[in-house]
Specification:
Elements (H helix, E strand, L loop, with lengths): L5 E5 H4 L7 H13 L8 E5 H7 L5 H15 L3 E5 L4 E5 L1 E7 L4 E6 L14 E5 L9 H11 L6 E5 H8 L8 H19 L2 E10 L2 E11 L32 H24 L5 H14 L2 H21 L1
Antiparallel strand pairs: 1-7, 2-6, 3-4, 5-6, 8-10, 9-10
């Protein structure tokens, strides 16, 4: 299996409505990443070793059961696309095979889904699989794909209603506060921490309600690059964070990267304080996540208190 797998999807599939677990999305991403976009091949094999290599935080001991369960569920899943003339629903997979004692799996994609994955002439989005490899939330992956569509534009506006529909959370997170706390904020924090992009979110109100979200999209720079000019800054003016290295969770290398991110954010926090301004809540959540990696739980507790006070104040104002 080649390195640096690239996932390519039609934009209409990225904006489709479907519900999948994190392992189901990982399997589909791995499968799509191995496809030749110019071929019509529908049958794909992969091994437990392939899965663990591409998603390093997966335990080798549990991987087989995770994959087996996820493939079984994918077989029952469907995806719904919609345009101005029609709504179409189809399944992802037409067959699944387990090769006993080999640690190998095979899935066949349906005829209906293939036009959204291969022979694409335009209106498609692509990204490297490694940029979502460390995500632990399916919402993080979905939102990452949606903003990657507009990466070159630098921003994307989506109504809250449409985003909930695409993520299939209209009923489970009908209230804005719950959706923000349980879906949106964790996804943005994970994207900012673990991917090649940095995202800021502006809330757009209609009356007293949050009607839409504007995602401001900035590519990250490598940790070794100095902050020398505006190309190294986000739209808010903050220096961009170093990209997460391809290392396992809990290693010294991960802690070193986290400390580099902490320095960037704490320096920016100091700069803002001198201006009479405060670090944004999304940046505070990022800072908190980095301190967790380093094991500084005292600072984590202090930052969490600040975040909770802000959220309580926001809730009272809605």
């Amino acid at each position: 299996m080649p390195n640096d797998l690239v996932v390519v999807k039609a934009n209409s599939l990225i904006e489709a409505s479907y519900r999948l677990s994190i392992d189901e999305v990982r399997i589909l991403a791995l499968t799509i990443g191995t496809m030749d976009p110019k071929s019509n091949q529908k049958i794909f094999d992969f091994t437990v070793a392939d899965f663990v290599r591409e998603f390093p935080e997966i335990s080798q001991d549990n991987a087989y059961k995770q994959i087996q369960g996820a493939i079984k569920r994918i077989y029952e899943r469907s995806v719904k696309t919609e345009d101005k003339d029609r709504v179409t629903e189809f399944r992802w997979v037409s067959s699944r095979t387990y090769f006993k004692k080999e640690g190998r799996f095979r899935i066949a994609m349906t005829d209906e889904v293939m036009p959204y994955l291969t022979q694409l002439k335009g209106q498609f989005t692509q990204y490297q699989l490694k940029h979502i490899a460390y995500f632990n939330s399916v919402h993080s992956i979905r939102i990452y794909e949606l903003i990657t569509q507009y990466r070159k534009v630098g921003e994307r506006e989506i109504t809250v209603e449409k985003l909930k529909e695409w993520l299939q959370v209209e009923e489970s997170y009908s209230r804005w506060n719950n959706f923000k706390a349980r879906v949106l904020d964790p996804a943005i924090s994970e994207i900012n921490e673990k991917s090649d992009l940095f995202i800021e979110v502006e809330q757009i109100k209609r009356g007293r309600s949050i009607h839409a979200l504007k995602f401001l999209i900035s590519p990250k720079k490598q940790a070794t690059q100095a902050v020398e000019n505006t190309e190294n800054l986000t739209k808010s003016g903050r220096p961009k964070l170093p990209q997460r290295p391809q290392v396992k969770k809990g290693t010294d290398a991960e802690a070193k990267w986290a400390r580099e991110c902490i320095k960037v954010l704490e320096d920016w926090r100091k700069t803002l304080k001198e201006r009479g301004e405060k670090l944004s809540t999304s940046d505070l959540e990022l800072l908190c996540s980095y301190y967790k990696i380093t094991g500084d739980w005292h600072t984590v507790e202090k930052i969490t208190e600040v975040i909770e006070k802000r959220q309580n104040k926001e809730n009272k104002n809605e």
